[in-house]
Design brief:
The chain starts with a strand and ends in a 7-residue tail after the last helix. It has helices spanning 55-66, 104-107, 109-113, 148-159, 164-176, and strands at 3-8, 12-18, 24-30, 35-40, 48-53, 80-81, 86-92, 116-122, 125-128, 141-147. Helices cover 25% and strands 32% of the residues. The chain contains five helices and ten strands, in the order βββββαββααβββαα.
């Protein structure tokens, strides 16, 4: 899929998206936020206006389309790009994850992976901007922001595929420091 972006002086921006059938979806974002959506059947044809959305409605529809409200069963994962190489992902903490039962500070995920946990979904509750003292529980869904590389490192660390040596080293260090609970 190719996306073309162009400035529309005095109007806003235009995005043209090539669709698999050879047609194009054209989205015009006006400076005041309004979006107009068109379909162009072929490169030579005129565009046909499909609908128009207010800024708030366009953002809500966009959130639905990206999968933030519901992830179809057939989807392996949701990937939402925030920029060229920055994405936001939702990751569930499994019972065997080495960070389950630890705080974000103890897990030290940001330093080890470069990805940040910006929210935690815990059942119906959302914990926005969790601090280092926030415990991670089995079944939590972590909302993570980072580069693709940082996200891959985060996912490996979460599953225990990477970082197990640093966990053991931390356990040995904590144990030798004489912590009251042995951790």
């Amino acid at each position: 899929m190719t996306v073309y972006e162009s400035d529309l002086p005095g109007v806003g921006k235009k995005h043209e998206i090539d669709l698999p059938d050879g047609s194009q979806l054209v989205v015009v974002t006006h400076n005041e936020g309004r979006r107009e959506v068109f379909r162009r059947p072929s490169p030579e044809a005129d565009s046909e206006k499909l609908f128009e959305l207010t800024d708030d409605l366009a953002r809500q529809v966009g959130t639905i389309l990206e999968g933030a409200y519901f992830q179809p069963v057939g989807s392996e994962r949701v990937e939402t790009l925030l920029g060229d190489d920055t994405l936001i992902e939702w990751v569930e903490v499994e019972g065997d994850s080495p960070i389950a039962g630890r705080t974000l500070g103890e897990a030290d995920l940001r330093r080890e992976t470069g990805a940040s946990v910006v929210a935690i979904e815990r059942g119906e509750r959302v914990i926005p901007s969790p601090g280092s003292d926030t415990a991670v529980e089995t079944g939590d869904t972590l909302v993570v922001v980072g580069t693709r590389e940082a996200y891959r490192a985060f996912e490996s660390r979460l599953s225990g595929a990477a970082g197990s040596e640093s966990d053991e080293a931390a356990d040995e260090t904590d144990g030798s420091a004489g912590g009251a609970d042995g951790r």
